């Protein structure tokens, strides 16, 4: 039986434990280049005892951006910025993947190059908001703009952006990348049959067509940096970002699992989203079915604490557990869980944006 604190092989890496820090946008970047800075490095270094850190979502292009004050991975300044983080984490013996993010339709013209419309699988407008500039130039939550569907030639350009970003990530010293195919962003806007009504080979008629973009991105990134440096995050049945339910939903995700299983990836990461009524989105029995389709390293996130993580691991259904909110307030989460020490509260008010308060000032546990 594997415990949270037992080592695991992940691609080319030996991890010290099975605890991952889930990707979390913190919106703390205040420089004009949108480059990770010295505080980003401190934040991740403080958490380096996780078996694996995954960074906040990092846009692969200006077009892929749907949030202000977040660090990009699409130019040399971004590479230099992130180098501080990877060096700081590696000095502490940690391992770190960067999450590659394209939000698709979940953006606003004020964030897009030359104020253009955001892009998606089809012409569409989500019922939702993003963090951008309003009509007075003030930063805040605004309704997302209407998006236009990408042409096939433009889809190839976006895939090329993922490849460029993955190569920049390796230049920046990351141990690998996590493709963000979760939470209703661009890749899921292709997978979801309720959104994707295209009539071409990326279109809705078949599951293979709707998975094509996800798999082409995955293959292109694997070719560029190696499959053992490539992970992917998905959120089956997730409803964030106005994702509708659709026919064949389970079969779509298990088919994706079977396809990913042939690619020898570092890992697949399932995000079990919260629902406001207190439940979560993965239906009973789904993880077992996904596990039957995907035999590689499987990680799960969503509402875990030490005991539920241990219980889940002991079933063999997953190999690692990622923690999100508990990591905000507890840089030494691994040590706290291993020793049964109490956790700090993660204060919601400081989750997104602001200064270093609630970011790099949470204390380590002090033994009396
Ligand atoms: C402040 C905050 C920012 C987040 N940003 C991201 C993100 O950039 N990418 C992503 O895939 N998930 C993001 N998530 C979701 C988390 O990775 C995680 O799946 C979620 O918080 C559930 O895990 P938890 O119950 O352990 O917090 C974010 C969550 C929080 C609380």
Give a concise summary.
The chain is 30% helix and 17% strand. It has 10 helices and 14 strands. The longest helix is centred in the middle third of the chain and has 20 residues, at 152-171.
**Which percent range fits the helix content?**
25-40%
Please write the CATH class name.
Alpha Beta
- Return the CATH topology: TIM Barrel
Distinct ligands: flavin mononucleotide
Question: What is the CATH superfamily label?
Answer: Aldolase class I
Helices and strands: which structural class?
A: alpha/beta
Gross morphology is globular
Protein name: Alkene reductase
Organism: Vibrio olivae
InterPro entries: Aldolase_TIM, OxRdtase_FMN_N, Oye-like
Pfam families: Oxidored_FMN (PF00724)
Give keywords.
368 residues; alpha/beta; TIM Barrel; 8-stranded parallel beta barrel; two-stranded antiparallel sheet; 30% helix; 17% strand; globular; binds flavin mononucleotide
List the helices and strands and how they pair.
Elements: E1 8-10, E2 13-15, E3 19-21, H1 38-46, E4 52-59, H2 76-91, E5 96-101, E6 119-120, E7 129-133, E8 139-143, E9 148-149, H3 152-171, E10 176-181, H4 186-191, H5 207-225, E11 230-234, H6 249-261, E12 267-271, H7 286-293, E13 298-301, H8 306-314, E14 320-323, H9 325-329, H10 333-339
Parallel strand pairs: 3-4, 3-14, 4-5, 5-10, 6-9, 10-11, 11-12, 12-13, 13-14
Antiparallel strand pairs: 1-2, 7-8
Flavin mononucleotide (FMN) is lined by residues 22-25, 56-57, 99, 180, 182-183, 233, 271, 301-304, 323-326, 351-352.
Protein name: Alkene reductase
Organism: Vibrio olivae
InterPro entries: Aldolase_TIM, OxRdtase_FMN_N, Oye-like
């Amino acid at each position: 039986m594997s415990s949270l604190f037992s080592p695991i092989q992940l691609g080319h890496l030996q991890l010290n434990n099975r605890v991952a820090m889930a990707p979390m946008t913190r919106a703390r970047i205040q420089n004009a280049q949108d480059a990770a800075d010295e505080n980003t490095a401190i934040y991740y270094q403080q958490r380096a005892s996780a078996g694996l850190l995954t960074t906040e979502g990092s846009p692969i292009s200006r077009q892929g951006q749907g949030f202000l004050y977040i660090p990009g991975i699409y130019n040399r300044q971004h590479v230099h910025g992130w180098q501080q983080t990877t060096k700081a984490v590696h000095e502490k013996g940690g391992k770190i993947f960067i999450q590659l993010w394209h939000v698709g339709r979940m953006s606003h013209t004020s964030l897009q190059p030359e104020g253009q419309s955001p892009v998606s699988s089809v012409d569409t407008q989500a019922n939702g908001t993003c963090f951008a500039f309003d009509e007075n130039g003030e930063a805040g939550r605004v309704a997302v703009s209407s998006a236009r569907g990408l042409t096939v030639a433009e889809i190839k350009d976006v895939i090329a952006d993922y490849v460029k970003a993955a190569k920049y990530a390796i230049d920046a010293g990351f141990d690998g990348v996590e493709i963000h195919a979760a939470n209703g962003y661009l890749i899921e806007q292709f997978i979801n049959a309720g959104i994707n009504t295209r009539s071409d080979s990326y279109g809705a008629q078949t599951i293979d067509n709707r998975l094509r973009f996800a798999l082409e991105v995955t293959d292109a990134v694997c070719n560029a940096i190696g499959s053992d440096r490539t992970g992917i995050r998905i959120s089956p049945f997730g409803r964030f970002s106005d994702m509708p339910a659709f026919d064949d939903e389970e079969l779509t995700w298990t088919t994706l699992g079977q396809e990913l299983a042939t690619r020898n990836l570092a890992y697949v990461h399932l995000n079990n989203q919260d629902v406001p009524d207190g439940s979560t989105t993965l239906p009973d029995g789904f993880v077992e079915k996904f596990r039957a389709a995907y035999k590689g390293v499987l990680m799960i996130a969503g509402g875990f604490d030490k005991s539920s993580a241990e219980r889940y691991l002991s079933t063999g259904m997953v190999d690692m557990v990622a923690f999100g909110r508990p990591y905000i307030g507890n840089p030494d989460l691994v040590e706290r869980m291993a020793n049964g020490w109490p956790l700090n509260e993660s204060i919601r008010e400081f989750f997104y944006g602001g200064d270093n308060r609630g970011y790099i000032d949470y204390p380590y546990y002090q033994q009396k």
